[in-house]
Amino acid sequence: MATVYHIEGVVKSYRHDGRTILANRGITLAVEQGEVFGLLGPNGAGKSTLILQMIGLLTPDQGRILFCGQDLRQHSMLVKRSVGYLPQEPFALQDLTVKQAIYFTGCLRRLSPRKARQMTDELIDRWQLQQISHTLVRHLSGGQRRLVGLATALIGRPPVLLLDEPTNDLDPGQRQQVWTYLRQLNAEEGTTVILVTHNVVEAERVLERVAIIANGQMVGIGRVGEIKAQVDNRIRLDLTFKPNSVVNHVCETLFQSNSIHWIGKHRVLILVERARADAAIKLLLSQVNIEQLADFRIQSANLEDVYIQLMSDWNEKE
Amino acid sequence: MLIGGIVVPLSFMFFLQFFANVRDPEVALHLVTGNVVISLLFTALSRTANRFAFLRETKAIHYYRALLESMNGLVLATITSFLLLTLPGVIITLSVGKLLFTLPIAPHPLIFLTFSLSTLAFGSLGALIGLRARNYEAAGVLANLINFIMAALGPIVIPMDRLPILVREFSWILPSTYVALAFRQTLTGQLDSHLLLAFVFLIICSSLTLYFVNRNLQSY
């Protein structure tokens, strides 16, 4: 299998308020042709900076990025012709209608006017944009704008897709539609898909390999199955306390701090070893009145848990 | 666009006739061509500055950079669109000026080159302002300030020999001086070697500005 992206020791810094901030600190990874690859990490981890370098919009301070074996510094045109890019904030073409925005992107991607028109109509049907096809992009909601952005990234069927948060602002039905389509595109046309997403649980269904980045550094990389194996002996206890509950601090007294992860004020995830799960559940239920719980789930670990665990381990090391 | 490109130059021209000796054909010609230059400044320079500041602030520039081989294409396309939007203002200003002051206007075909080079010079300067200003609002303020300097500190509306010496010397570095000169000659059909100088200056000025615009675009 050919390597689409080979990223080698990439370091990138930028100036902000008079300070130098290291956004990427020696990132090394490879993306193979035809895989669905995920870049995960918290806000400000340096994912978008890495993506901007992968699309040729930024140049690494150190290290290099090869696209199909060619150094991007000398061959940025190769990326422009082969990669469909969805930026995190798709604000361009606000003064065009949806149909014009998709069509003109096709023209900029060197499609003939006839082909661009045909593909525009296909994409409008695919993403059910018929009702808004003559509406100016500036008048669309966030979710509609995201779908138009996705359509502009897809026109011309580029062999590589670089999608920065493709499901942000979308409703659950639309998110499902996006994941299904990306999987289908990858299976049928062999399109290489590189995703940046916070929606780890949903993305798990399409991702084959993931790289987890924190504070500009690589925290983990591997096949989803392999990377999950690092924490697959853990059981996830997912508790949501009712508002005004006074017992939510009880978790901290019962479990080690690195296995507790608060999601908001009332929801907590507790990761426990499989062998200790039975005892942990009994202990928890003996201390927490079930009436004070709005929801209580027992699940095996998923990619989100792996992500949370790796981030937690990394934070402790730092 | 309507206010900056048509209403402002027309009002300016209308009120200035009460203070200037418009029976003097040279004064009248300066008044009309000067207002054409003001119309161009408001549309080509200010609008391009606002457009590029917007593209930069919203990161829409990434969209174009991810697709286009050369960013000069984006700059030229933006300037061309404003060139077309500038046309009504220029035609109305000229027509009203001709009627108001009974000017002997006999345009030379080089008027098209004058119009294109002027829009390119102002538009590329606007693009640079939009890319270098701190934010969208600052770009607007800076563009207005440059517009004022270009319109007031040169022989745009007032003939050169009636300007203070310091302003005369300073005016030779302003593209608007050459734009106004070129319009005066190509509109009346009375060409001399100064027109060539104006064209050369505008080409050099536009090329230099476009070079810096392109360099700045690569860093966003």
- Beta content of chain A: 25-35%
Number of separate helices of chain B = 9
> What is the CATH level 1 assignment of the largest domain in chain A?
Alpha Beta
Computed CA radius of gyration of chain B, to the nearest angstrom: 17 Å
Number of domains of chain B: 1
Number of helix segments of chain A?
A: 11
Principal-axes geometry of chain A comes out as: globular
Helix content of chain B: over 70%
What's the story with the biggest beta sheet of chain A? 6 strands, mixed
Report the biggest beta sheet of chain B as strand number plus sense, adding barrel if it closes: none
**Roughly how many Å is the radius of gyration of chain A?**
22 Å
Largest interface: A-B, 19 and 13 residues
Please state how the strands of the largest beta sheet of chain A are arranged side by side: 6-7-8-3-9-10
CATH structural architecture of the largest domain in chain A: 3-Layer(aba) Sandwich
Low-confidence blocks of residues of chain A: none
- The helix-strand sequence of chain B is HHHHHHHHH
Number of strands of chain A: 14
